[in-house]
Amino acid sequence: MSKVAVLFVCLGNICRSPLAEAAFRQEAERRGLAVAVDSAGTGDWHQGHAPDHRAQAVARRNGVDIGGYRARQVRAEDFDRFTHIVAMDPDNLADLERLRPPGARADLSLMLEHAGRAGEPVEDPYYGGDDGFDVTWADVSAAARGLAQALNDGAA
Ligand code: 4NP
Fold it and tell me: What total number of domains does the chain contain?
C-alpha cells in the first residue's frame, strides 16, 4: 500500500483545518504513525497567511505551535498526492466533490465522521468569540483520535 497522506480542508485554511492538522500531527506522533499531513482551504483569500491568532493561541494552550503554518488553496494534484482528504463541513465536502478530477485516488470524508458524529460540521469559529476555538479544538482532537485509530487498525 502506498504511504498514507492526509489533507484537512476548510474554507479559509486559517482556523479549522490548521487546528485539525495540528491535532492529527500530535496524535500520529503519539502513536508513531508514519503519515504525511497538510491542510488547505477551498477559498484563496488567505493564501500565504499564518493561522488566525485565536487559532494559534488555542493550539499553543494545547501544546502545539502552528505559527509557521501558511494557508494555501486546494489544487487538483492534491486528489492524487493525498490518500485521505478530510473536509471540516458539508459545504467544504461538496466543493471538494466538485473539484475532484475523475479517477483521482483520494478518499473524501467529513471530519466528525471520525468521531462518531456523521453529517455534523466542525462549526466555523471565525466570526465568533475565543471560546469557539476551544470547541473547534475539542472537535478536531476527537476526530483526529478516531482517524488515527482507524488508520492504525487499517480500517480507513
Ligand atoms: P476557516 O475559517 O475556514 O476555518 O479557516 C474562515 C476563515 C476566513 C473566512 C471564512 C472562514 N473568511 O471568510 O475570510
Answer: 1
Distance 52 CA to ligand 1 centre (A): 9
Statement: residue 1 has pLDDT above 70: no
Residue 68 CA, chain-centre distance (Å), reads 16
Helix axis angle for 131-152 and 16-31, nearest 10°, is 40
Provide the CATH number for the domain around residue 86: 3.40.50.2300
Parent domain of 145: 5-153
Q: Considering the entire predicted model, what is its pTM?
A: 0.97
Verify whether residue 10 is a known catalytic residue.
yes
List 15, 16, 54, 145, catalytic entry: 16
Each residue's pLDDT tens digit, 57-76: 999 999 999 999 999 999 99
